[in-house]
Amino acid sequence: MKKPTVDYTGFRLSRIKEPRFRHLLLLVSWPIYLVLYFALERAFPLDQCYSVHCALDDAMAFNEVFVVPYVGWYFLLAFTVLYFMFYDLENFKGFQIFLIVTEVVALTTYAIFPTRVDFQPETMPRDNIFSDIIGLLYAVDVNTNACPSLHVAFSLGIGSAWSKRKQTRLWVKLMIWAMAILICLSTVYTKQHSVLDFVWALPMCLLAEIVAYGRSYWLPKFKKQPAASLNK
Fold it and tell me: Is the pLDDT reported for residue 224 higher than 60?
């Protein structure tokens, strides 16, 4: 088994500010985000939330099978955070900053401009296990806090973070991107989000990419180019 980059056996909360464990402070954003997310999800009555809808939402038919990648998002997200935390601290830091930026932007948007989706099916068109899971999902994850979609933003962030890891093989990166794309599609086909929620997640991801990786990843690539090649 691969040896972790950091040995956490001696970790205690009292030691979290030590250089060896200081990166774990980034995880503090998770409980703060979850509390604020669920608070905002129930802060506004439905009639005070703007209904997000476009023609493409009607063109893309409901498909309950897409609940599989939708729910798989939770496992992929947890796996990515934990893997980087143990085996790739630089990517852990960059990925966590990416998530924090998207969380701040999204939560601020939800507070200022609350949104909802109104086109979830009242009855399932087919009776199967996927429809049962969708019904449970609708009951737990209410139809507010829709735009921009954090499901989409986190998925694109996962793909971006793994793409930057030189030690990861190409087929693994392609597989993760395939999963991320399926998750993005699942938000629309399960009727949890509008296509507009996906579209508005893109500039949020661009901002997060710049903040998280702008200097540490993208800027050095441009600086390494010889002057002669820049003048061509």
Answer: no
